[in-house]
Amino acid sequence: MARVTSQPLRDSDHAVDPVLESGRAVLRTEARALDSMADALGESFVRAVTAILASQGRLIVAGIGKSGHVGRKIASTFASTGTPAHFVHAAEASHGDLGMIGARDCVILLSNSGETRELSDLIAYTRRFAIPLIAITRVPDSTLGKSADFTLALPDAPEACAIGMAPTTSTTASLALGDALAVAVMRRRGFEPESFRLFHPGGKLGAQLMRVAEIMHTGAALPLVAEDTAMPDVLVRMSGAGYGVALVAVQGRLSGIITDGDLRRKMDGLLACAAGEVATRNPKTIAPDALVSEAVGVMNRAKVNALCVTQADGTIVGMVRLHDCLRAGVV
Question: Does residue 206 lie in a domain region?
Fold first, then answer.
């Protein structure tokens, strides 16, 4: 079978121009819709954000079809940015899952037309128990729009598909509006990077927000030696620790570092020296509350494989190696 390779599309390739233009048209159509929605955003958005913040329960998001898929993503975004949230399937809600929604919750329902039949039981349930209801719909005068406490209108823009019927522009606008709500709530809550990592402990994001203090070596594991420690003893300490370095300290404060490179450079008469005579002064250090990614940057720029972790006054509190950062998944 012949191997097919992907080649970039170019304006000069007349055979693919219709494909390229189709892609551009879709993006431009959806971009115009987002611009229009941004310009129209008003008091209802502020009130919806306030309602979410005031809720003492969870944020419930529901929809059906493509709106359901978008709703799942919106709920996930809220949950990962400090607002307890989950998605309830609109059809399943009518068969028992309404019990997932409590009186202290807040509900977001998505429907482009605002007349989605499967949402009727959810609408009635929120009205019966006075649960705040936020509607995301293109038709504010629809059943959903008129029933909701807060209605966020999608732009009355054409779908970007070739036949103008497949949900494209409308789902993009719904997703963007959900992001706008989540970010506004996130900012009002004062959600910080440390909080973000709490909900993202795994993967690259979690690793990038990890602090040096979480992975550094401390206590008896540190290869500490005094200025006057004889080099034979320093070598024993370095070998025993297995880090390839020794930290030279005076009253608990870093005064220098001895690396394998220092040993090679001062091989002549090495064993007759003391640690202070071999140590490199003013070595690169890192603070315990610095990001691990920052420590990696310092090591890369200095072309070293380990950093002493110190407080502002030079007190040694730990040591971190490039290998530790690799194992944590930062690089």
Answer: no
Query: What dihedral do alpha carbons 274, 276, 278, 281 form, nearest 10°?
Result: 180
The end-to-end CA distance of the chain, in Å, is: 39
Domain at 123, CATH number:
3.40.50.10490
Total number of domains constituting the chain = 2
For residues 149, 155, 157, 163, the Cα torsion angle rounded to the nearest 10 degrees is -50
- pLDDT, the chain, mean: 88
Candidates 122, 111, 51; CA nearest to 83 is 51
Q: Is 283 in contact with 314 (CB distance < 8 Å)? A: no
pTM above 0.90, yes or no: no
What residue type is assigned to position 22 of the chain?
Answer: S
Residues linked to residue 82 through DSSP beta bridges, in sequence order: none
Do both 311 and 228 map to the same domain?
yes
Q: Do the beta carbons of residue 168 and residue 26 sit within 8 Å?
A: yes
- Under a CB-based contact definition with an 8 Å cutoff, are residues 108 and 71 in contact? yes
- 289, 186 contact by CB (below 8 A): no
pLDDT in tens, 194-216: 555 555 555 555 566 788 998 89
* DSSP assignments along 253-300, one per residue: EEEEEEEHHHHHHT-TTGGGSBHHHHPBSS--EE-TTSBHHHHHHHHH
Structural tokens at position 130: 């006075």
Q: Which residues contact 83 (CB under 8 A, 6 or more apart)?
A: 52, 59, 182, 185, 186, 189
Q: Is 281 helix (H, G, I), strand (E, B) or coil?
A: coil
For residue 83 the two structure tokens come to 């607002």
| 3-state secondary structure (DSSP) of residue 259 | strand
